[in-house]
């Protein structure tokens, strides 16, 4: 009933092995889509060891949205109802599928998500209810989400124009707009790393590289303009300018990230 999908791009092999080890006995198959990794030979040699791991190789980096859609398409074609999506460096708890299974029969469930435990930040241990309905599309990342494949057929799959960044947020927004629920199971904690977060006093920087910075700026502006209108778009525009100032003060490759940000500011309209 369940399979896992992982998008690969130059993965750290030790981390990837830990990822696979954490989930392999909880699902029927693991579908890995590789976006032209430099270490593809090493990836292939590892995956040959288990016939329940299927590797799909792309000849170029097609972007995370395209690869996620390949994973979802595999589920369509093989009559699966649910896919657990994971980043290549995430580590699942042993109870993730058992706990998620308690909620799959709820009405209008589109996505079941975990609590994210970022390895670079301290997390609250405050006790929570068994699950929380998530009404903010930006509160749920792709990794660790169990996605209803039938709902994907109805609302459309991931937006390939975005390539990377805001792919999950835009998908979540369409899920909510179409009346489907996103819930967070509060006793499932996924070990994850968002960028390379570092605190500088009161400021938190993600330290994403210039390549990512371009898509973060471009796609955020596109998303805000499309779904929230002019006022929220302007607020986001100002926040991105202030965020760029923070990068110029605290992060490395300042000029590269500045140029990438300017490119994102210029190009968001091309997506509309």
How does this model look, in words?
This protein is α/β, with parallel strands linked by helices and 272 residues long. The protein folds into 2 domains: 2-192, Spore Coat Polysaccharide Biosynthesis Protein SpsA, Chain A (Alpha-Beta Complex), CATH 3.90.550.10; 198-271, no CATH class. It has 8 helices and 10 strands. The protein has helices at residues 13-23, 40-47, 64-77, 96-101, 149-155, 167-177, 210-250, 254-267; strands at residues 2-8, 29-35, 53-58, 82-86, 109-118, 131-133, 145-148, 181-192, 198-200, 203-205. It has an 8-stranded mixed sheet, with helices on both faces. Strands 9-10 form a two-stranded antiparallel sheet. Strand 2, helix 2 and strand 3 form a beta-alpha-beta unit. The termini are far apart.
Attribute tags:
272 residues, Spore Coat Polysaccharide Biosynthesis Protein SpsA, Chain A, 2 domains, 8-stranded mixed sheet, two-stranded antiparallel ribbon
């Amino acid at each position: 009933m369940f399979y896992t999908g992982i998008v690969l791009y130059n993965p750290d092999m030790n981390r990837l092995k830990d990822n696979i080890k954490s989930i392999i006995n909880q699902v029927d198959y693991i579908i890995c889509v590789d976006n032209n990794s430099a270490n593809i030979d090493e990836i292939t040699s590892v995956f040959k060891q288990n016939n329940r791991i299927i590797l799909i190789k792309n000849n170029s980096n097609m972007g995370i949205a395209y690869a996620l859609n390949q994973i979802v398409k595999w589920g369509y074609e093989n009559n699966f109802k649910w896919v657990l999506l994971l980043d290549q460096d995430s580590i699942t708890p042993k109870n993730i599928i058992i706990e998620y299974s308690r909620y799959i029969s709820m009405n209008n469930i589109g996505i079941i998500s975990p609590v994210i435990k970022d390895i670079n930040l301290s997390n609250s241990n405050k006790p929570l209810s068994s699950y929380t309905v998530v009404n903010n599309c930006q509160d749920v990342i792709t990794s660790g989400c169990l996605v209803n494949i039938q709902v994907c057929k109805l609302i459309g799959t991931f937006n390939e124009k975005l390539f990377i960044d805001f792919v999950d947020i835009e998908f979540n927004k369409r899920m909510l707009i179409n009346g489907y629920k996103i819930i967070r199971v509060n006793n499932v904690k996924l070990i994850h790393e968002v960028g390379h977060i570092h605190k500088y006093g009161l400021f938190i920087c993600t330290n994403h590289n210039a390549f990512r910075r371009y898509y973060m700026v471009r796609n955020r502006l596109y998303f805000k303009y499309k779904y929230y209108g002019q006022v929220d778009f302007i607020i986001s525009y100002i926040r991105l300018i202030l965020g760029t100032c923070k990068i110029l003060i605290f992060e490395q490759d300042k000029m590269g990230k500045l140029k990438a940000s300017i490119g994102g500011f210029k190009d968001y309209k091309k997506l509309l």
